[in-house]
Amino acid sequence: MNERILVLLGSINMFIAVAAGAFGAHGLKKMLSEEMLSVWHTAVTYQVMHALGMIAVALLMPKFGGAALNWAGNLMLIGIVIFSGSLYVLALTGTRILGAITPIGGAAFLAAWLLVAWSAYRGMR
Q: Where does the sequence pass through the membrane (predicted)?
């Protein structure tokens, strides 16, 4: 994934996260329990962090280059879809089985940040 696509996808995810945050704060407040609103908020928070992370990765690509940053951007997007996506569905439907796949998205986030660190480390040598 090149820098432009990462910025594009990161920006789209920021738009979705802001809209989801507003929807949760205003539209879902009376419909969901406090627990499910908290789940929704967690999904929004991680989507925001990693959408910004995708944009940061795009900005680092010209400096550090390499396949590791490309993978990091991809893993952040995958993490958003799996982690935040499963939590959004859980909050809206109460389908708790989806909680079983949420950690896969979390692992994708962790791997992405390790790849960013690895790219920075390699750039120091």
A: 40-61, 68-91, 97-121
Taking the alpha carbons at both ends of the chain, their separation in whole angstroms is: 25
Residue 9 and residue 77 in contact, taking contact as beta carbons nearer than 8 Å: yes
Band of pLDDT at residue 32, cut at 50, 70 and 90:
very high
| This prediction's pTM | 0.93
Query: C-alpha distances in angstroms, 73 versus 2, 3, 34, 63, 97?
Result: 9, 9, 33, 15, 27
Q: Find out if CATH 3.30.230 is the number for domain 3-124.
A: no
pLDDT above 80 (res 125): no
Q: In the prediction, which pLDDT does 89 show? A: 96
Q: Tokens for 51, please give them.
A: 């959408």
